[in-house]
Design brief:
The chain has nine helices and no strands. By secondary structure, the protein is mostly helical. The model has no long low-confidence stretch (mean pLDDT about 90).
């Protein structure tokens, strides 16, 4: 491999960062927070997890063999960003690994819950997963239903996107409609 092998980018690294950046931009939409997503570090992580989870699901289930590696690149971009953000917030080097691992475990749990919600008919599974993850079961009135409907819109919109656009790092997720 040699020294130059260490400096070489992974095949889909740029695409992963571009897609992740687009998902984060969608997760920062003010309408999400107006709909009841808590405007806290945890709430922002949950919004990002929702958008990235749906994107990763779309990529992993595409028949194109590049889908899974691009999904992994999006995941890698997310946790490289989480690591960087924790460092910028002043979290000590000794605890970064543990914090990132905990975030990874949280994301993995959400991704599994969202996979189940995608497979379930209707929005009840979405509402339950979102209420549990975003509001620890005590959600504002109507918030889980609004966010579940938005998740279904995102899911359908991502499913309709041509894979080549995603493989080229092009993604502009639809905004949540204001109440």
């Amino acid at each position: 491999m040699g020294l130059f092998g260490l400096l070489r980018r992974k095949p889909h690294e740029r695409t992963g960062f571009e897609l992740y950046t687009a998902a984060v931009a969608a997760a920062r939409e003010p309408a999400l927070f107006a709909a009841g997503v808590p405007d806290t570090l945890e709430g922002r992580f949950e919004a990002i997890s929702l958008h990235v989870g749906l994107l990763v699901h779309r990529l992993r289930h595409d028949p194109d063999p590049r889908g899974a590696p691009i999904a992994q690149a999006v995941f890698d971009a997310m946790f490289a960003d989480m690591d960087l953000n924790l460092r910028e917030m002043g979290v000590g080097d000794m605890s970064i690994g543990k914090r990132v691992k905990r975030l990874w475990e949280n994301f993995h749990g959400r991704a599994r819950a969202y996979e189940a919600a995608i497979a379930a008919p209707g929005n009840a599974a979405w509402e339950e997963a979102l209420a549990r993850n975003l509001w620890a079961g005590s959600a504002p009135e109507g918030a889980p239903a609004r966010l579940a409907a938005h998740a279904r819109v995102l899911e359908a919109w991502l499913a309709a996107q041509p894979f080549e656009a995603l493989a080229g790092g092009r993604l502009a997720l639809p905004r949540m409609e204001a109440a």
